Amino acid sequence: MKKLSARRRHPLAALVVLLFALAATGGLYTAFAPAGEAKADKGSSQSLAIEEGKKLYDVGCSSCHGTGGQGTSDGPSLVGVGAASVDFQVGTGRMPLQQQGAQAPKKKQVYDQDEINQLAAYVASLGSGPSQPTKKQYDPNGSDVAKGGELFRTNCAQCHNFTGEGGALTHGKFAPDLGDVSEKHIYEAMQTGPQNMPSFPDTVMPEKDKRDIVAYVKTVNSDKSESPGGFKLGGFGPVSEGMFAWIFGLGSMVAVAVWVAARTAKARKS
């Protein structure tokens, strides 16, 4: 006890205790502070994205969709549509809308990707909805193209035709050509169901099936893709191809038969 008391009265005892306290504090900070700072930085950047997105929204979107995204007579509510819907609509240039019509056509985009992400963050803050997919979700590498073809013909060919070349619908609407649509936007369209298209959430169509469909669409519309049956005839499938063969093939045969009969009759008269 006398030795311990003597050490406590030592001139360097206070310095040793101070150094020990600083070391312990530094260790605790190293162990716990980075995770907390990362969360704070992420939350701060997300808040900043929402704030900037609201500024963009107020200027370019609020006149149709309302100041709080509640919708107006000129545009639907955006509450609950999610970030994926914003990324698709704005990323393909469909929004902001150029003019009212039966359907918003694809055009050159107005905002860059950073601004689109900010708009998406703000709209997502209005209500939960499908989030923007990661590259892993829509990357077609390694997908089953044959299975994607089956799924596409079952769920999509009625409007987009057998190879995704699009087609007319009712009242001036149409299913767009999918040949030049990016993998991400094809995936987002299935997630969100833009305009006349039904949505296919993961509960209806699993992520893998959507990725297989993306792989099929990009394969049949690639520059290296060749139609094994000859001309694609607009991608309408075997019905149009059979009708083409029936009308033009049979028509040609009838024309040849008429020509032969006329020549034979003329030869007999001679």
TrEMBL record:
InterPro entries: bc1_cytC-su, Cyt_c-like_dom, Cyt_c-like_dom_sf, Cytochrome_c_Oxidase_Subunit. It catalyses: a quinol + 2 Fe(III)-[cytochrome c](out) = a quinone + 2 Fe(II)-[cytochrome c](out) + 2 H(+)(out). It is found in: Cell membrane. The keyword RNA-binding does not apply. Its main location: membrane. Its EC number is 7.1.1.8. Residues 48-127, 143-221 form the Cytochrome c domain. Residues 1-23 form the signal peptide. Pfam families: Cytochrom_C (PF00034), Cytochrome_CBB3 (PF13442). The keyword Isomerase does not apply. Gene3D superfamilies: Cytochrome c-like domain (1.10.760.10). It comes from the Bacteria. Coiled coil: none annotated. It is a multi-pass membrane protein. Keywords: Cell membrane, Electron transport, Heme, Iron, Membrane, Metal-binding, Repeat, Respiratory chain, Signal, Translocase, Transmembrane, Transmembrane helix, Transport. The chain crosses the membrane at residues 243-262. The cytochrome bc1 complex is composed of a cytochrome b (QcrB), the Rieske iron-sulfur protein (QcrA) and a diheme cytochrome c (QcrC) subunit. PANTHER family: CBB3-TYPE CYTOCHROME C OXIDASE SUBUNIT FIXP (PTHR33751), CYTOCHROME BC1 COMPLEX CYTOCHROME C SUBUNIT (PTHR33751:SF13). This is Cytochrome bc1 complex cytochrome c subunit.
